[in-house]
Prior knowledge:
Layout: E1 3-7, H1 11-22, E2 27-31, H2 34-44, E3 48-52, H3 60-69, E4 77-82, H4 87-96, E5 100-103, H5 108-193, H6 199-208, H7 210-242, E6 250-252, H8 254-264, E7 279-283, E8 289-292, H9 294-322, E9 331-339, E10 343-350, H10 380-391, E11 395-401, E12 405-413, E13 417-418
Helix pairs in contact: 2-3, 5-7, 7-8, 8-9, 9-10
Amino acid sequence: MAKILAVDDDITVQIILQELLESEGHEVLLAEDGEAALLKTKKLQPDLIICDWMMPKLDGLEVCRRIKADPQLATIFLILLTIREHVADRVQGLDSGADDFLSKPIEPSELQARVRSGLRLSQLNKQFSQALHELKQTQSQLVQSEKMSSLGRMVAGIAHEINNPVTFIHGNLSHIEYYTQDLLELVEFYQQEYPNPSPRLQNKITDVNLDFLSQDFPKILGSMKIGTERLRELVLSLRKFSRIDEAERKSVDIHEGIESALFLVQYRLLNSAGQPWIQIIKEYGNLPLFECYPGQLNQVFLHIINNAIEALERDKEKAKVNGYSLKNIPIIKIQTTLQDNYQVIIHIIDNGVGITEVVKPRIFDPFFTTKPVGKGRGLGLSIAHQIVVSQHGGELDCVSQPNVGTQMTIKLPFQKCLLG
């Protein structure tokens, strides 16, 4: 039936409650005072609590207050056991968080009726809390999906607009390179044919620093060519990441999505001198094409990689504040494997500050964040979890140890793969 915690400092009352409740098929837990009741409530999560008002250490009112103040315990139905019948006392009990009252001495039929009523209400509370939780998740998913859809359309549009002039410039740079080479060769021939230019021409040659120009101009063209190639790579990564034209399931290369996410955060991997301060280690396995929602899965990669970078940044800031150097080189390692022909496994590992045991159970909760106000809304990992679990039937797991690092593991089921 149900798990019920009976709290009373009188052993006789404990025995009576245990016998009456077990006769109804319930599992009964016992506590002799308020402190023991709180410990057992947190550890065992009972469905209903019957608590005496007057007890040593913590009385029933304080037990009610502390249980109702804990979001993880607040839905537990709590019956306060008392001899007090005055309205003012009952009001005080209700204000402290009691859901119902049971008078002493205990009348068996009243006890059983109130327990049945309490369990019904407790079940409704749990269903309501679950529905509210799912509604929040759905709301956050819809908000984020709409944002990402709008962002995807904008990114695709920007990528298209950038691509046209960049392609034009890049395509013409090779012609300019040929023309420049021809002009410089022509100048060289003129110098050979007319080794003694007029004073006016000699002054102009000196003014324009012809020797330097002849050496530097091809270098400038080479740099421009590298720059336009970089822009073309960026446009390609933006297109791959947004995949606005691939809202439906598509067969894609997982590594391509990871690479596009890495490319978009590349600026965060460099220090002020433009040198990499985070080492990216890639250990890619031989994966088949994977049937998925590419844009959504790319969001997952970006969220997790961003979180890894932030963990390393916090570690770096902690070292700076405390006046010591980082012990290890900041690392983000990405491993992909095909496990037993059943799952695509993706590990994203960092050696940053890690996650505490208190925080870890809540990292996938919507709107939960440990960041300062204005720095994060607590949606990234919640949405990543929904995309992996709900949209792709997979798993998203976290293994972490403070001051050691974090490993996020994405498991995607084999039946979604195309082995070609």
